[in-house]
Give the backbone structure.
Amino acid sequence: MRRLRFTFIVVVTALGSGCGGAAESDTEPKVLRKRMVKEQLEAPGRDIKHRRTLKAMGEVPRHEFVPANMRRYAYTDRPLRIGHGQTISQPYIVAFMTEQLDPQPTDKILEIGTGSGYQAAVLSALVKEVYTIEIVEPLAKRSKDTLARLGYTNVKTKLGDGYQGWPEKAPFDAVIVTCSPTHVPQPLVDQLKEGGKMIIPVGKFGSQKLYLLKKQGGRVQQTAVLAVRFVPMTGTAQKKPKGDDK
C-alpha cells in the first residue's frame, strides 16, 4: 500500500475576484494547473503516472467547481468545503482514484457522490459516458448546472441514493465512490461488468481505507490501496448492516 504524503501548498490568487475589475484571464488558471500536476501529482512520493489522467487534471478548470469565496485555493494541495457538509477532494486523491480505474475511451463509468462535479468532469475527458448520482439536492442541482455550463455533455446526472446505483443504465465498466459506506454496497457490485473495477472508500470516519475491487467470475477481489478520509455515505447506507442488501 502506498503511503499518502501530504504537502500543503497555499497559492493565493485572484481567481474569481472581480466586482467591477478586469475579466479573469485564462492564463493564470492554466499556469496553476500545470504547477498542480507537476508538484502535487507527478512529484516523488505521489508518482501519478497515468498520462491521460495527468492530461485531464491539467485541463479541467477546478476553480469552476468550488464556491466563489474558495476559488483562490482551488489548486492547492487539500480538500475544500463546498457546502452542505461536503468537500471537493484533494487533487491527488482525484488523480489517484482515477488512475486506479485505468479508464478507457470506450468505458461507461458510474460515480457515486457527484459533489461539486469535478471528479465527473475529469472522468468525462477519459471515457465515453459518465453517470453520476448525488443525494444532496442543492449540490445535485449546482453540479448539473456547472457541468452543463462548461460543456461536459457526456456526463449524465441524477438526484438520488447512490447506494442503489443506477440499475437502468447498468452494467458499468467501472464504479467510483466518493463517500464512505461501512461496507461495499451489493447493488454497486451487481451493476459492475464482469472484469470491471470499483474504487471505494470503506469504513467509519477516521478509520477508512480505499479499496480497489475487481469483478471476476461474479465475485470481487479487493485490495486496500490507501488510507483515506471521506465524508460518510448517507441514505440507505446508514440503515443497512453489512450483508443486508435486500
